[in-house]
TrEMBL record:
InterPro entries: MFS_dom (IPR020846), MFS_ERD6/Tret1-like (IPR044775), MFS_sugar_transport-like (IPR005828), MFS_trans_sf (IPR036259), MFS_Trehalose_Transporter (IPR050549), Sugar/inositol_transpt (IPR003663), Sugar_transporter_CS (IPR005829). Belongs to the major facilitator superfamily. Sugar transporter (TC 2.A.1.1) family. Trehalose transporter subfamily. Keywords: Cell membrane, Glycoprotein, Membrane, Transmembrane, Transmembrane helix, Transport. It is found in: Cell membrane. This is Major facilitator superfamily (MFS) profile domain-containing protein. It comes from Nezara viridula (Southern green stink bug). GO terms for cellular component: plasma membrane. Gene3D superfamilies: MFS general substrate transporter like domains (1.20.1250.20). Residues 32-458 form the Major facilitator superfamily (MFS) profile domain.
């Protein structure tokens, strides 16, 4: 394919859903997206809670004092428990519904923070963090599935990033509040956050896809009508969803797990797993762990709490940038930019720590880690952070979406736990520079993976995406013309001007 050439190709076998709704009718979709995304704010707050809380637990006036080993487990219990939350979340979203599953997560969030607030012993804090992780694991798979099934293709990228945006806002709230509140009052704030999320999510409908999967077409159409607006004509979109459902269930197989690992569905599943692997093994948690160290090495006199606030602010601002760009540039372009920025900045950080480890005078380069660190966070937040979650809800086929999302989410949290628990030991054994260089190599491989494997889903319906992925699997000997039809570049528009 010639570089720089715009290719406009349509697959005549793929039915496009017309954009029947007006700009005004997007209001209901925005409200639904905001409601469930409030749950992501709770997830973000929960994830960042230990950073300020662990520090205040050893303050002079604290009723609890913890050891370094206890602190390590308090920090890592959440991703470990989220792994199990991801496993049980799949059956939940299939059996009780996407929306009801999201609503149910408010309970473990509230209870977990109340356990921490009233804790008189470190074991209750660990129990609370484990319960938090359960809610995080369930929510992290249910949110993208809900949004993928309710939001129109033309705005699915923008609204699909709302959970990440509000999640990063939750991180910033945790870091900022943690500067002024001790761990008990911070936990009390955490127990209050799920309340508005719970109330708002009750007011929105279940997804049309779930109703259709349960054989209730009447409720599915009512849900779609609510989401698209009273004046929207949803009959054609409803017909396309029903058609996709009938095609997916044409070959009945009661063993969904066996079906998932069949050749029919392996491609979207492998793509989702790959995106999650490269997300976590980019070293994001390791780099954030070294926030204070990097600032100190840069000669900064900024205290650790303010460093954390800066991290939260960069995360939030970067995600807002991604929200603006994702439906203009597409998923792949942002992943290219993201992986490229992370590769370069990790190489710079690796080189800096190599110099320090080998006795070089790095004082004159003390300013380098700070901008490298900020650019790394920016790169992660515009692509590798939010897009794997967004695409999980887009590319996993409807028939196996619940089970597949469950396994993919569990895999993500497994990777998170591995990176969190092994980074310190890896750094001691091989040097911090070796860890950063390893992460840089993985990000570079992630760039190749994106180019070779990841489809562009910008502006395309879920049915369109599923049909094209199935076409890629079936076509073992595609001609160059056919390859161009499924190649992501065929669907990229010229770079639009910024609004």
């Amino acid at each position: 394919m010639e570089s720089g050439k715009k290719i406009e190709m349509e697959d005549p076998s793929v039915e496009k859903i017309p954009q029947t709704s007006s700009r005004g009718s997007l209001v209901k979709q925005v409200l639904a997206a905001l409601a469930v995304s409030l749950g992501s704010m709770v997830v973000g707050f929960s994830s960042a809670f230990t950073s300020p809380a662990l520090e205040s637990m050893n303050d002079e006036g604290s009723r609890l004092h913890i050891t370094a080993s206890e602190a390590s487990w308090i920090g890592s219990l959440m991703p470990l428990s989220a792994l199990f939350g991801g496993i049980i979340g799949g059956p939940l979203i299939e059996n009780v519904g996407r929306r009801n599953t999201i609503i149910m997560t408010a309970i473990p969030f509230c209870v977990s923070f109340l356990l921490i607030y009233f804790a008189q012993h470190v074991s209750l804090i660990m129990a609370g963090r484990s319960l938090t992780g359960l809610g995080v694991g369930i929510a992290s798979l249910a949110l993208p599935v809900y949004l993928g099934e309710t939001v129109e293709a033309r705005v699915r990228g923008t609204l699909g990033l709302l959970p990440t945006t509000l999640g990063n806002m939750g991180i910033l709230v945790s870091f900022t509040a943690g500067t002024y509140l001790d761990w008990t009052n911070l936990a009390l704030l955490g127990a209050c956050l799920p309340i508005p999320f719970f109330i708002c999510t009750i007011l929105i409908p279940e997804t049309p896809t779930w109703f259709i999967n349960r054989g209730n077409e009447k409720k599915a159409e009512a849900s779609l009508q609510w989401l698209r607006g009273k004046k929207a004509n949803v009959h054609e979109e409803m017909a396309n969803i029903l058609k996709a459902h009938k095609e997916a269930y044409h070959e009945q197989n009661d063993n969904v797990l066996k079906e998932l690992f069949s050749k029919k569905y392996y491609l979207p599943f492998v793509i989702s797993i790959g995106l999650m692997f490269f997300q976590q093994f980019s070293g994001i948690n390791a780099v954030i762990f070294y926030t204070v160290t990097i600032f100190k090495d840069a000669g900064s006199t900024i205290d650790s709490n303010l460093c954390s606030i800066i991290v939260g602010a960069v995360n939030l601002a970067s995600t807002l940038v991604a929200t603006v760009l994702i439906d203009k540039l597409g998923r792949k372009i942002l992943l290219y930019i993201s992986n490229s920025l992370m590769t370069v900045t990790l190489l710079i950080l690796g080189g800096f720590f190599y110099g320090k480890a080998n006795g070089y005078d790095m004082e004159q380069y003390g300013w380098v880690p700070l901008p490298a660190f900020v650019i790394f966070i920016f790169g992660f937040a515009i692509g590798a952070g939010p897009i794997p979650w967004l695409m999980m809800g887009e590319i996993l086929p409807s028939k196996v979406r619940g089970t597949a999302a469950s396994i993919v989410t569990a895999f993500n949290w497994t990777c998170t736990f591995i990176v969190t628990k092994t980074f310190i030991d890896m750094s001691k054994a091989f040097g911090t520079h070796s860890a950063f260089l390893m992460f840089a190599i993985i990000c570079a491989i992630g760039l190749i993976f994106t180019y070779k494997m990841v489809p562009e889903t910008q502006g395309r319906t879920l049915e369109d995406i599923e049909n094209n992925l199935m076409a890629r699997r079936r076509s073992s000997r595609l001609s160059i013309k056919s390859l161009k039809k499924i190649n992501s570049l065929a669907y990229l528009k010229p770079f639009p001007s910024m609004l």
